Amino acid sequence: MPNEPQYRAGVCRLLLEHVEALDEGAEIVGRVGSASLRAIRDSSALAWIPARFSDEVADATLAVLKQERFTRFWAVQADGWGQSPLFAPIIEASRRIFGPGNPWGKLKWYGRAWSVTTRNLGQFVSSQDGRMVVVEHRDIPPSHRIERIAYSTAGTITGLVEAAGHTPDLDVDADALSSTGLLRFCIRW
């Protein structure tokens, strides 16, 4: 399908590896269908695969970990992205340009990372005002206008700010998620 939401397989594999490393990893992976696992494990890292395969892993992770631990899982995973061949160049560039202790660079470039690792899953737009950043996830397709997306994105944003050495204060506005596909995050540190 031409407008089907997709991820790069390497991003999905990174997610699966982080899930498998959890104490509950076997339980989570046991909830994921073999077709999804095969697509994630066997595809080239740069290949585009349907988002539904990774979504199945994320849904199973949320079901086992529950909201609070699921959100924290994403924060920890985001901190490890600097070791990934897909994300390391973007994270290193943001560190060099904005400085290692400035979360703004990572939050701004999160949208760039998103745009090269997803298709038809919306876009991220960021703006800064001093020590406050607004990140909007716009044009989220109907298939992904669910709470899990707000939890994982909040966790990712938290992890990016923490990786810069700060404790984030994060406000999530999901009021328009189901109707227009907009998530808005206001981050202070």
Overview of this structure, please?
By secondary structure, the chain is of the alpha+beta class. The chain has one domain (6-188): H-NOX domain. The protein is built from eight helices and seven strands. The chain has a four-stranded antiparallel beta sheet with strand order 4-5-7-6, with helices on one face. α1 packs across α4 (51-79) and α3 (34-42) crosses α4 (51-79).
Q: What order do the helices and strands come in, and which of them pair?
A:
Layout: E1 6-8, H1 9-20, H2 25-30, H3 34-42, E2 48-50, H4 51-79, H5 88-98, H6 103-117, E3 118-119, E4 123-129, E5 132-138, H7 147-163, E6 169-173, H8 177-180, E7 183-188
Antiparallel strand pairs: 1-2, 1-3, 4-5, 5-7, 6-7
Helix pairs in contact: 1-3, 1-4, 3-4, 4-7, 5-6, 6-7
Largest sheet: 4 strands, antiparallel
Number of helices: 8
What is the averaged pLDDT score? 93
What Rg do the Cα atoms give? 16 Å
CATH topology: H-NOX domain
Care to count the β-strands? 7
Oligomerization:
single chain
**Spans with pLDDT under 50 lasting ≥5 residues?**
none
Helix content: 40-55%
The fraction of residues in strands falls at 15-25%
What is the CATH C-level name?
A: Alpha Beta
Q: Which architecture name does CATH use?
A: Alpha-Beta Complex
Gap between N and C termini, in Å? 41 Å
Provide the spatial order of strands within the biggest beta sheet.
4-5-7-6
Structural class of the helix and strand makeup? alpha+beta
Envelope shape: globular
Order of H and E elements:
EHHHEHHHEEEHEHE
The CATH H-level homologous superfamily: H-NOX domain
Indicate how many domains the architecture comprises: 1
